[in-house]
Amino acid sequence: MTEKDQALEQNWLGSTESGEDLPDQDIPEQAMNPTVAKQLIQHFRLNEAKADQNLTTFCTTQMEPEADELMKEAMNTNAIDKTEYPKTAAMCDRCVAMIGHMWGIPEDEKFPKDYIGTSTVGSSEGCMLGGLGMLFTWKHRAKAAGININDLDHHRPNLIIGSGYQVVWQKFCTYWNVEMRQVPLKKGSDELNLNIDEAMKLVDENTIGIVAIFGITYTGAIDDVQALDQRVSEYNQSHPDLPLRIHVDSAYNGFFAPWVSGFKPWDFRLKNVASINVSGHKYGMVYPGIGWIVWRKNNYDYLPKELRFSVQYLG
Ligand SMILES: Cc1ncc(COP(=O)(O)O)c(C=O)c1O
């Protein structure tokens, strides 16, 4: 470090460089002193940088210093390229294995032989992947049942969900041209979760699945997944060709409910629950960004072949 840099580090506020603006349109002509750059950025996002007051994610997002060190050491890996970083990928797999068992996958079933899943960028990506799993498996089941899935006038796929959904479900339906069939939350009543009777009335042969929200962002209520599963079982008995599936969006409850008593079964203990997503950070003291999705079976009927990718050229 030069003498000037040292001086800047101690007292950057009075320096000429501290008068510089953070660029917002073009890459600047001149380099900026790194100490000044760092401090300008720190000031710019000061109000957002207090992890123990990070209410925007519902919770605190600070962690132990050891976690900081591990994160720093891993910063130079591009974890999305799993073939390049097999040890990092193996650690991810261990987490999926544990989460699956935490959510009721029987102990004698093993990851990845019997069930499958992955880390995601928050629940936002987890929900997207859950939706894709439902859409693509529906296409296969519908085709086998003789439905012309290319006839979108009559067979546009639809998804049923309570209207207290998080915006990611709207994105999923928009990106993939899926009709979102919303079940309204009743105004002025105690019914701040999914009305199962109303949800079942919306089901038809083009329904890719029902999303149960196990922790509704707006109301704090939870959908009754057990009651929904019961109704779906009854429906499936009379519709063996096109059985319905449930995806549970447990963004902020999936790491909570397994550890407290009083919740009715909501997870893979229920037979029609095909997949579950969760956010890593919604119960506090975890850095944000990570999420997870687990499918109850590792077979093409739950996660079709075309959604699985094998990469040969990395690594
Ligand atoms: C029910 C629900 N689903 C999905 C999400 C998206 O989660 P994330 O912020 O981890 O992407 C949220 C976040 O608020 C949520 O509450």
From TrEMBL:
GO terms for cellular component: cytosol. One of its GO terms (biological process) is L-glutamate catabolic process. The modification N6-(pyridoxal phosphate)lysine is found at K282. Residues 1-28 are annotated as: Disordered. Residues 8-17 have a biased composition (Polar residues). Its EC number is 4.1.1.15. The keyword Iron-sulfur does not apply. One of its GO terms (molecular function) is aromatic-L-amino-acid decarboxylase activity. It catalyses: L-glutamate + H(+) = 4-aminobutanoate + CO2. Keywords: Decarboxylase, Lyase, Pyridoxal phosphate. Its cofactor is pyridoxal 5'-phosphate. It comes from the Bacteria. It is an enzyme of class 4 (lyase). Residues 18-27 have a biased composition (Acidic residues). Belongs to the group II decarboxylase family. This is glutamate decarboxylase. It comes from Limosilactobacillus coleohominis 101-4-CHN.
